[in-house]
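User: Here's a chain of 283 residues. Predict its fold as tokens.
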Amino acid sequence: MKKLISLLLVGLLAISATACSASGGAQSGGSAASSEGDSSKPVTLKVGVNGTDFRLWDCLNQQLKPYRITLEPVSFADYVKPNEALADKEIDLNAFQTEIYFKTFIKQHNLNLVSLGDTYIAPMGIYSKKVKKISDTPDNAKVAIPNDASNGGRALLLLQSAGLIKLDGKDPVTPTTKNITSNPKNLQFISMESVQIPRALGDVDIAAINTGVVSDAGMNPAKDAIIRESTKNKSSKNYYNIIAIRPEDKNNPAFQKILKVYYTDQTKKVINEMYKGAIVPVW
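Assistant: Prediction complete.
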């Protein structure tokens, strides 16, 4: 789905000009609610994303031209403001976060938002400037993990799958360090904002980082991670990235057209070509 980035996250993808060229876009014509996706009236919708690479959205805009719909990316620097801005009607949709992060966030902040649909899964990885293999993690190692509940729990589950810790299983989705029952290497956990973790790699031994944040930091998730989470276990659905909207737009024709063009072979080709397995489409 930056931080949920998402995550997702979304605004992360780069693509060659041969796969999808930049779009000129339609002129702004007001909110989707007023137009209801009427193809006779141009519509511009603001989509909240993490990061500043908007070429995926340019590609989607090419596909949306026949419907006279334009997506205008709005970049946020954290995982909090995109949902708040959506609830406050400052933007029309966002695409940056995993399903579990979304569910946790709207519950904690009492926001009335819903998912329009799934997009892709971006496997979390463990990264290090000091360790080449996860099994070489030293005793008393400093371990950076995201400080939000969903991604922090995701990091701990990944560390458990790597054999570094054991959890009690009481919270299978968002465990905390309090759920650790075995920590033979006496790992020292440091929680921080997801987008700050790449900058801290030189100060810690290993770090759990979301794919979107890694990409924005100029690293290659498929090559630079020393271990990545599986995309095929039963909990994978929790980490699908989503497009979030306000509930009144769930059946709005304009939003359904956005989902339609997202779920195309052209979009899937863009994701596969640029991420080469770092991000996996889920439709």
